[in-house]
Amino acid sequence: MKIFILLFASALILFANELQFEHNFSKALQKAKEQNKEVMMMYSATWCPECDYMKEVVFKNKKVSTYIQKYFIVLSLDVQKDTLPKGFEYPGIPVFFFIDVNSKEKSKIIGGSKANIFLQKLKAIQ
Asked: How many angstroms separate the CA atoms of 29 and 26, rounded?
């Protein structure tokens, strides 16, 4: 029983810093309004290695995930599979749009980067 409790507690700690991705623009905006945050919308694709790096390495960095959770609702959309909201132009992927609760783009980060650099970019936007 003690082992089960330890494993369960460890799992909670591990997943506490995991980012929760929304996959619906309207729902992400609604959550942002309710939580007084902005939306960080990521355009990606399954074949994009830089997108995978951002999701599997950068977003799992404790400092990055903590900062993102504090200020943003994360919306992840696949450019080939999902319906993309109108008005958000992108030259390539990954691209990150920072959107206020009125659906207006405040800023954009094009391309991926290492965790410390991405965190600096996030802080410059916020």
From this structure: 5
Q: In the chain, what are the domain boundaries?
A: 2-125
Higher pLDDT, 13 or 57: 57
pTM recorded for the entire structure:
0.85
Residues 62 and 123: their CA atoms lie apart, in Å, by 15
Per the DSSP assignment, residues forming a β-bridge with 72 are 38
* 16-54 pLDDT tens trace: 568 999 999 999 999 999 999 999 999 999 999 999 999
* The listed CATH number (3.40.430.10, 3.40.47.10, 3.40.50.300, 3.40.30.10) that belongs to domain 2-125: 3.40.30.10
Q: What phi and psi values does residue 41 have, to the nearest 5 degrees?
A: -100, 125
